[in-house]
Known about the structure:
Blueprint: H1 2-37, E1 45-53, E2 59-68, E3 75-84, E4 88-101, E5 104-112, E6 118-126, E7 129-136, E8 141-147
Antiparallel strand pairs: 1-2, 1-8, 2-3, 3-4, 4-5, 5-6, 6-7, 7-8
Amino acid sequence: xxxxxxxxxxxxxxxxxxxxxxxxxxxxxxxxxxxxxxxxxxxxxxxxxxxxxxxxxxxxxxxxxxxxxxxxxxxxxxxxxxxxxxxxxxxxxxxxxxxxxxxxxxxxxxxxxxxxxxxxxxxxxxxxxxxxxxxxxxxxxxxxxxxxxx
Length: 150
């Protein structure tokens, strides 16, 4: 009985992830095309790269779509989409404060990711580079290393 329930939950999560991934793919293509043809602010737009974790050595592809949020002038919406083990995909959307800092921008915030714990993020955007360190209440910690898509 427990195995059947687990498989049902896994199947449901997989279906939902695939729906969200299809929507992200469409939005990603639009953002990349728009970014290449339009001048954007230094924070908004598409970012692509890798994520790594220090706790277990896992890594995967990472993409992020950033856009201004309505909450405040400093708030931006970050839509992350990651892969791991080359077959699993997932993502989440959050808002972080972005502040001008020297020749770049700082990106700080936190998000409750349910079973994955509370997630905090401390990053820096400088030119075409967006790097961040993350830490989860579950003990996981690592980094995001992204650049603008070519």
